[in-house]
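Subject: Re: docking follow-up (copper (II) ion)

Dear J.,

Thanks for your patience while I sorted out the input files. As discussed at Tuesday's group meeting, I've set up the holo structure prediction with copper (II) ion included as the bound ligand rather than trying to dock it afterwards. The sequence and the ligand SMILES I used are pasted below, so you can double-check that they match what you have on your end before we go further.
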Amino acid sequence: MGITRLNAYAGLATAYLITDQAEADLVTSNVIPSTQIPLVIQDKTFKTVSDQWGDPGDLWYPSVYEDTTTDTNTGRWGRGGSGISPLPIRSCVPEFFSDTILINGACYPYLNVEPRRYRFRILNGSQARGYNLQLYYADASGAEADLAKPGPPFIQIGTEGGFLPAPVVLNNPPNQTQRDAKGAAIFTDPNAYDLLLLGAERADIIIDFSDCEPGDTLILYNDAPAPYPEGDPMDDYYTGNDDHEATGGAPSTQAGYGPNTRTMMQIRVVPLTGSEDPYDFNETLDLLKSALPIAFKDSQPAPLSNNVGEFVKGVGKTLNEDFDEYGRLIQRLGTITQNGLNNEGNPTWGRNYMDEPATEIVNNGETQVWNIYNLTGDTHPIHFHLVNVQIISRAPFQIDSDGTPHFDQIGPARPPDANELGWKETVRMNPGEVTTVIMKFDAPAPPPWVTMKTSPRTGGYEYVWHCHILEHEEHDMMRPLIVNP
Ligand SMILES: [Cu+2]
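The structure tokens for the complex came back this morning:
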């Protein structure tokens, strides 16, 4: 507790691939390809200067300013001419968006593919960064995406909750992030992104490269704003981006060099070896339209609600942004019962992880609907332990000019995206929206040699729900989830 963000950052991340008979049947019948490649995505930042904190190539985390010796703007994280001396050591940061994307632990990797179908198991293991994944052919340099030349489409068949009830075609053509005049993403349009993954979200996709020619080069591309959805241009690195040195940021990225958070991975098409794939994109999609609903039914619980797209009144929860006792920005979970005033003297609904009493208490086997009102300016990937949830709807709610939210005044609800149907365990919750989820709290039946222990603090089986932006979950966007035996 308190070092998750550092452990995840310092170490390599990987994933477990969990299988079952429904999946094995799809592979045996060649509906989905047997070749699957995990893509574990993390963002990291590497030091460029030697100082008392380390050397070039070492991982850098924003605990110190890189340039601590002069008041110039050298270094990517100089003091930006602040004039403050000495600069403070930062105890925590609200979030951390790095400048270099690693896939399976490698910077700017390439992958050889044959002209056939591949299955990719994608995990966003980043601290805070989201990805709007798209695929394009490379330009003449081979290093940059040609945004006018889309690559093959994706067929998404699953999420972190398992198989989808129906296949979803993405990158057909790619949806680049739509931005308003200020550069903020327009998230209220459910089609304003392509394959969007915030922290801990996962996607199971099939790409058919059989229309590509050996020698073709493709680029896996991302243009999600960070933070999502407003976006700070200083966190968006690409060739020719604006020079941000005057405000303590990075210089413009030169062609052929990093940092670059848009150009993620190069895919090189090599000649086919062995026999051709039995099915192409259209045949695969047709087969999945009949086979995936069956695999979903055989491997997943039935959906709990048919009211998808409608607002259903349930238990009210809130996502809150406050300042802690040291004046540091803090993100917290809460209920819709006001919890006093925050450090600025404004009403808050947020509670710390250890605040008594626990507020999420359910009975084993109970089904609940939660309406989670996001009072902050960020989209939070809210992650549920123990349960997978079904998204019912997202809808706007009202906040008065004095900041008072109205937990009853609901605008028109919209359904989850097609690739959010079925089961999810990490759900994007957008600012100004109430996200409604339904879930059934079935505590697992342990094997006979394991004794289920109740929590001395709360008397129940204790789980958690939390934001999966790592800097948020630790400060202090997590609450206990108590299941009464
Ligand atoms: Cu968060």
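A couple of observations from a first look. The first strand starts at residue 36 and ends at 44. Confidence is low (pLDDT under 50) at residues 71-75.

Let me know if you'd like me to rerun anything.

Best regards,
T.
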